Amino acid sequence: MTDYLKEFYENYDEDGRLRSKSGIVEFLTTMRYIDKYIFEGARIMEIGAGTGRYSHEFAQRGYRVDAVELLEHNIEIFKRNTQINESITITQGNALDLSRFNDNTYDITLLLGPMYHLYTEEEQSQALAEAIRVTKRGGVVFVAYCGNDATILEFGFLKSKILQPPYNELIDFTTFKAFSTPEELFQLYRREDIDRLVHRFDVTRLNYVGSDMATHYMRNCIEEMPEEVYRMYLEYHFTICERQDMVGISHHILDILRKN
How far is it, in rounded angstroms, from Cα 143 to Cα 116? Predict the structure, then answer.
C-alpha cells in the first residue's frame, strides 16, 4: 500500500488542492467545525497530516500541535512550511500505531486522511481506536471519509467509466456499493459503514457533515464564479452541509465525535 500512496502523493499537489476556489470549500468547512469546539490552550494532534495544511493553520494561531505523517515526501514539505514561531512537531508514523503517544493527551484530534487508505474493517477500527485513545475524555475527534456515491456519480456516470475495467469489477451493481484495493488508493464509505465503525466506541456523535457536498461536481463553474456569487455559494453550502437527506452526495464526509 505504501508504494501506491508514495507514487500518488509525490505527483499530486494536495496542498494546492486545498487552496483552489473549489478545493478550499472542504478546508473552510472543516475549519468551521473545528472552531466550534476548539478553545484557548487546547492541545491538537493531527494524524495523517500530509503537508500540514491544518497543522500549520493552528500552530500559527498559537496552538501546540503534534503531527504524524506516513510519507517522507509530505514530511519534507511539512518541515519546509514550518515557521520559526510555530509550536509544532512532525513525526513519521502510522495511524494504526500511535504507541509513542500517551492516552488521554489531546483536546482535539484530527484524523483527516488515513481512513481514505485503509481497506479492512480491522484497520479502520484500529486507526479510529488509536485516535480516540490519545484524545482526552471530553475531547473531540474529527474523522474524514471519502463518499461512495459521489464517486459512483462522478467517475461512474459523469465520466462514463461505470462499465469500463477496472471500475465495472469494483462495483456491486445490485447496491452500487464500490469496493477498493490499495491499487485504487481510496476506500469509499456510506453512512452505514461509518456507523458500524463508530458504534464500537464510547463516543457521542456531535455532527455528521458533507465537507464539500455539490462542490466537486461544479468545480469548473465554481472556479469561474464572481466573488459575490462565490460567497453566496459558500453560505448555501454551509446551510446544507448537515442536511442528512443530502450528505450522501458529498465526496468528503466529516464525522465529529466526542470521547465519553
Answer: 10
DSSP 63: -
8 Å CB contact between 15 and 218: no
**Does residue 48 contact residue 68 with C-beta atoms inside 8 Å?**
yes
- Other CB atoms within 10 A of residue 94 CB: 16
Per the DSSP assignment, residues forming a β-bridge with 257 are 141, 205
Neighbour-count burial of 136, counting CB atoms closer than 10 A to its CB (0-12 exposed, 13-18 middle, 19+ buried)? middle
- pTM of the predicted model as reported, rounded to 2 decimal places: 0.93
> Judging by DSSP bridges, how do beta strands 106-111 and 135-147 pair with one another?
parallel
- Choose among 188, 185, 196, 204: nearest CA to 250: 188
Q: Using an 8 Å Cβ cutoff, are 117 and 186 in contact?
A: yes
Residue range 133-173, pLDDT digits in tens: 999 999 999 999 999 999 999 989 999 999 998 889 999 99
**8 A C-beta contact, residue 67 and residue 88:** yes
